[in-house]
Specification:
Number of helices: 1
Largest sheet: 2 strands, antiparallel
Distance between the termini: 26 Å
């Protein structure tokens, strides 16, 4: 149930069929649950993508543990399963973004 996922998180797989030769913008963020303290890798088999922007949470430089969520986002609930841009979308590098097939979502 989508509302339950938004309120308390969920463990589900989302699949999207993308038509051939179409450009899409995908915004990924890692929910800020202090107990998890993990980053997530995302890999596309047989495809690549361009990373046009990236933000990071505040973290302890000695331990690498998260201190605060990404300052670009506003979490709308305790699990940050519903979020919005704090001051609108960040500036995008549309001139020469790096091409990837794997990225770590901090």
């Amino acid at each position: 149930d989508e509302e339950q996922c938004r309120q308390s998180g969920c463990r589900c797989t989302h699949m999207i069929d993308i038509p051939y030769n179409k450009t899409i913008q995908l915004v990924m963020y890692n929910t800020f649950v202090p107990i998890s303290q993990t980053h997530h890798s995302v890999h596309l088999h047989g495809h690549d993508f361009q990373v046009v922007a990236m933000g990071y949470p505040s973290y302890n430089r000695s331990t690498g543990r998260h201190l605060l969520p990404n300052p670009d986002l506003v979490c709308k609930n305790d699990f940050c399963t519903d979020a919005a841009w704090r001051d609108g979308p960040p500036a995008l590098n549309l001139i020469d973004p790096p091409k990837k097939d794997t990225v770590i979502v901090p």
